[in-house]
# Entry
Amino acid sequence: MSLQAERLSALIEFCYQSARLRGKPTATISSHGNFSLYENDLSGIPGVRLNSNGLDSSDEIWLSVDRLHESKPPTVTNEWLKPWIAISKSPNEEPTLKSNVDSRVLIDAGTKTDEEDALLPIISPETLVSLEEYPERSKVLALHQEYVKGEWAAWATNEKKRLKAIRLYSQLFTLKQQLEDGIGEAQLELVWGIGIGIWKTEVC
# Structure
């Protein structure tokens, strides 16, 4: 190797080591900026399997995550509740009741009362009906609570777990791309291990 090549190699090594000194090594997993996951984080998440290959398999599958999709909230079939309820796709937002409903919607649902028919002008079938003044308001409120605490609550509990599985799949897919394509400024390493915890008590 020529003198010029040796000097260039030394300069490159100096730059490399200088760049390494700028970065502070991560001391704990909790302070790690990239993806990290504990086994207890996977508890109750649908579509997630650990060591699913078994002890006798030649392929070691440490973690398997199914690709799931979001599900819709349970359909409201009750004719008295359906015109009034407003449902979000998010399991974190409970269904609410509309303050006003077009009378035509109630007519189509078959829940418009004779009392309202007498009050509404014939020439204006699209008059808004207020929930506060609706004769069957108490029934609607009771059905709303029954739906929220029953069917919707069960769906929301399962959907939150499903969303965790969807988010985990996306994170693992992104991590796979980063490892394969070298996306990012620094070199990445995947660490999979078992930690040993020590429980200190007054006896110890």
